[in-house]
Design goal:
The protein is built from seven helices and six strands. The strands form three sheets. Strands 1-2 form a two-stranded antiparallel sheet. A two-stranded antiparallel ribbon has the order 3-6. A two-stranded antiparallel sheet has the order 4-5. 31% of the residues are buried. Helix 1 runs antiparallel to helix 3. The protein has two domains: 108 residues, no CATH class; 61 residues, Alpha-Beta Plaits, CATH 3.30.70.20. Helix content is 30%, strand content 8%. Bound molecules: iron/sulfur cluster (3 copies). One iron/sulfur cluster binds next to helix 4. One iron/sulfur cluster (SF4) binds next to helix 4.
């Protein structure tokens, strides 16, 4: 992963705080307008049920981001690629890739300490959002439960009580409760679960 600032049309870094607030509000407004248009489009669709069933955006991220990152269109407008979040992260799991913060949960987990949010001056990461990376682990056949052995490591590691262990078969994850921290992944000694979106 390459570190370094990406290409941004206007540098927020160079703006005084009042201009940053103004820019944030403008971006937020644009985004709200877009969401309303998309909502109307969705309501006009004959299969409105499929729209209603769409999971929250935090579970749909294609690129792993810090836990309180704005939705992608807002992140793209607000983040200036300064890397303050990466420097602040005690677990060293953030890198700036193509100008935006990306999480690497392959070798470490996220503590959900939110030091990254505290370091972000542009409101690309904001404390008003729930602390979730937008990723959900998937269990695979390496998990020893799949061949009848017992293990509770992932469940014990989970700070959100999001994992249940059925009497037969793979562990189940509640997408509603999972915060995408990857502690379960780091606790597993047979690579029985992965974050597919983090590849
Ligand atoms: S919440 Fe803490 S551990 Fe997680 S990415 Fe942010 S700074 Fe790193
Ligand atoms: S601290 Fe904020 S503006 Fe800087 S790279 Fe991280 S998310 Fe972007
Ligand atoms: S430890 Fe729990 S909250 Fe963290 S990713 Fe795994 S299931 Fe989700």
């Amino acid at each position: 992963m390459a570190n370094g600032a990406g290409h941004h049309p206007a540098s927020i870094e160079a703006l005084p705080m009042s201009r940053i607030d103004e820019r944030y509000l403008r971006a937020r407004l644009d985004h709200t307008r877009l969401s309303r248009r998309e909502l109307l489009r969705g309501l006009l669709r004959p299969v409105a049920a499929s729209f209603a069933a769409t999971p929250p955006l935090r579970q749909q991220r294609e690129i792993p981001r810090p836990p309180q990152a704005q939705e992608e269109p807002l992140l793209a407008q607000l983040c200036n690629g300064c890397g303050a979040c990466a420097t602040a992260c005690p677990n060293q799991i953030i890198s700036v890739e193509h100008g935006f913060p990306r999480l690497d949960l392959e070798h470490n987990y996220c503590d959900l300490c939110l030091a990254c949010t505290a370091a972000c001056e542009t409101r690309a990461l904001i404390p008003e959002l729930p602390a979730m990376t937008g990723l959900v682990p998937v269990f695979n056949e390496n998990c020893v439960l799949s061949y009848g052995e017992s293990c509770t490591l992932c469940q014990e590691a989970c700070p959100s009580q999001a994992i249940t262990l059925p009497s037969a078969g793979l562990p189940q994850v509640s997408a509603e409760h999972c915060q995408g921290c990857a502690r379960c992944i780091q606790s597993c000694y047979v690579s029985g679960c992965t974050m597919p979106q983090a590849d």
